[in-house]
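Archive entry: two folds, one per protein. Generate the first.
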Amino acid sequence: MEEKDDAAKDAFYARLEDTYDRCPNHDVKIILGDFNAKVGRERIFDRTVAQFSLHETTSNNGFRLIDFAAARNMVVSSTRFRHLDIHKATWLSPDQKTRNQIDHVVIDGRHASSVMNVRTFRGVNIDSDHYLVAAKIPIRLCRAKNVRPITQRKLDVTRLRSQRTATAYSTHLSELLHQPTPLPVDAGGLWAHISHSMRAAAETAIGFRRPPTRNQGVSRRSCGKNAAYRRTLQSGATRATCERYREKRKEERRLFRRKKREKEKRECEELEVLQDRNDARKFYQQVNRLTHGFNTGASNCRDENGNLVTDTQCTLRLWRAHFSKLLAGDDGTNPAIGGSNPIPPIDDNVDIPLPSHDEVRVAIMRLKNNKAAGADGLPAELFKAGGEELIRCGHQLFCRIWLEESMPNHWNLSVLCPVLKKGDPTICTNYRGISLIAISYKVLSSVICERLKPYTSTLIGLSVRLQTWQIHHRPDLHIAPNPGKPTKMELTHTISLSITKLHSIVRHENAYMPPCLSSVFLQS
């Protein structure tokens, strides 16, 4: 930053001051990095930088750093410890002759005594002209145990494409479900037995997805380069030793470029194979991955005032407030979740037949592949490959839910995935949410949807206009031409309402529910 003009330097320190002022007063504030600032040993700066710097005089950037630290009662800890000069230098010039101390660790004066040591470690090869700077700071941590959240491992459902693997999974699942032990009486216990059996059979038959392995050839070249770098740090290192290290670096870079070209060639060949197979899903997935690259998610967010929030509980509260407002109605209440005046259930003494075995089979086979699983981690492919025994147990489960008019508590859980639409990733309002519900709940919704289609076609009577290309998806509709607008056709038949594809919240207090449909809706 020494070659930059004064306007760029002023803008940098102004932004740094603004970020520092936003931090809470009780936090331990540490600023570290490459300031490109030489701090001298002038006596006037003893309170801020002490007397153990590598340089005698202070540079222009050094004065800026000292002014920033002194104005906020901060201390430059990297110049407060007595070390050898080789343990003070943080940057080495390309000609291997000039060494400067331009990387610093700055901490607020209240916690300056917590810094036990700051020094440079030359032995660590970070493939840079800067050395690694380490600070030893003992911090008294909270006694509360911070438990790392356990994430579910994803099952490798692509192996079910093999008929042998699918048969092994179906056979093992049938054995687990057909155990002689008595089944639970309630719906929650029955679903727990089914889900546990499905996961155990899937783990045995298909296993989990494997993480990508590292290239061993690249690892061996990196080890050779690191060994050559350590030899250059020895006291008797010659010019030939440094040249060998440079050659090792060049070899490693050539290897990286060659591996990159080979990978790009393989990816292009894979795209051609996917195009020939007419596999549009994987083709566009790989195209998006190659064009967009890897985007890291934002673990922190900003509040309404623009301040960065790092506390976990405060971050969760901000996300909760955002999605509560996003999913609420016009008056701030969501009748689908529960309003101030819930509608009592209507009992009209109308007998609704239980779901049949064939209805459950059709609903399971109607599930789409390659969809994300819910909170239980069971994708749709496991249900479709489960076999007749799984359909029989699912039929028993749905009959109990139908009679008890209550669903398992696990079905009330959903995974809310925030999707960034535009703008700054640290602002919650730039996200929209996708709720991932359990696949078993989708099966029950599909059964209810098929039951409601005849009633909706007869009682609701909507008149909707569709484009010409949409009509081919509904062969049961009778089309009458509209002479006024020849580009559109008016449907004289009603369109069935699909429960599983509603994206807006229905106002139940404003909707009309016929008595014959009231007992179809179940109380969750």
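Generate the second and append.
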Amino acid sequence: MAGIPVIAPSDLASFDPADTVVVVMADFGLYGEAIVQAVAAQGPFPVITPLEFDTLPDLLPLVTAPTSQAWPADGSGAGEAAGWRDVPAAFGRVLAEVVRPRTADAPLPAVPGHACLLIGSLSPGGAERQIAYLGAGLRRRGWRVTVLSFYPPMAGAENYVRLLEAAGAELLVLPSARAIWGTLTRADWQRWTPALRLGCPLASFMQHAVVAVQSVLEERKADVLFTYLDANNLVGGMAGLLAGTPRIVMSGRNLNPTHFPGMVDFCSDGAALPQLFRRMLNCPGVTMTNNSRAGAQSYASWLGVEEAAIPVVANAVDVATLKSVDRKAGERWRRHLGLGPDQPVVVGAMRLAPEKAPLRFLEVIRRLRDRLPDVHAILLGDGPLRAAVEDARDALGLDGTVTLMGARADVYELMLAGNLLLQTSTVEGMPNVVLEAQSLGRAVVATAAGGTVECLTAPLRPYVQAGQPDRLVDGLVSACTELLSDRRRAAALGAEAAALIARDFSIERMTEATLAVAGLA
């Protein structure tokens, strides 16, 4: 980059820390700590990333004086940060300066055209599942689809990859910092300066992300960009505006970020985030959706806009895949786990994290066992509370009553081993597992968190519980008792729910609704 030598950390011993700067091109979030330790072992060298504006232009002449003029001297780099004390005002000013004009009456893109879908990575999560469904649905409608991610697909996301590849979608890992900044020229710097200016309030890795997404949108000449989850919404919104993408649809997949501590750390002023989003939403062709009314209300309040400004596009279920699950699999799992054919079985499928309340799940099972001594529970999932869940299960004397199965690919087969799904969340968007359990013909008992009620079919809504924690647990226990004591009724309710889910929550319906929001139906 501008003549900076590429060397191994061990070679630093031959350099003087007084006139040497280490510029890290690798992913600093993933490898930064290890790199800093390796460098520190060689001496007190300053370590920076390529996007640290307050430092880089001043330090580069120490390393490469002959070519330092390739870096801007007009304040678009280091000087930019000084004008961002009032982040919303500065963002609005830069937005007006660097984004090409957009008009509300601009002609629509060709339909079907080229859609880019942005997600952090394809991983075994709910938002990732839905973006895979959207990609497949768009392909069925004749759209060219490119799914953009910052990292390769993760373990557990194989089904999503297969679905997208079978549909003919392109899966593209965005250019790394090394790929973009490792061969920087004056022309490159001029090209990316607007993105770096607009992304000034973001963490450095997200400034790079804006550049990476913009580069692909321009290269692919995307007609519409769909982004899922807030960090991607922020990056994608900026990149899409800079690239001149005609339609940009950002999507919140839960309640607003204030419900998730640490989720706003990617901005230098977390309190300014609503205003940044609102300024982008004021641009023609830019929309934000949510997957539940509860989520839309939450975002509207946070953003300071009318609820109607956040359209709701409900999650979808892959009905064909769920219909293909072997119905005998549940019986086989019962035999494998030593459970009788008529034994009452409750299934939980969740990330073992605070918002999913897995400890509440255990408490419900403990009280339920007092009423139905032969009840058994299967808990699927993993997460940061795994150890706490294991300890609590043993402390409550549930080691013979609750089977912890961890994260698995055969969740649907294990759901069929149960009589009902128990969901105990405190915070939810539109829980995929609740939709899928119904599609498999299983009754659901759930809390009223977020958009849970919205994705339950009418026959099962009486089994949704709300209230203070202890009263809530009692309500969940009573609902489970009622359904497990009359399993014929539970099966009938599940069968009715499956038909309604197939009608109202298909991939085709979700795709159509998403295109309608973008004005492209």
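Annotation attached to the second fold: The chain has three domains: 9-71, 122-316+508-517, 319-505. Confidence is low (pLDDT under 50) at residues 53-82.
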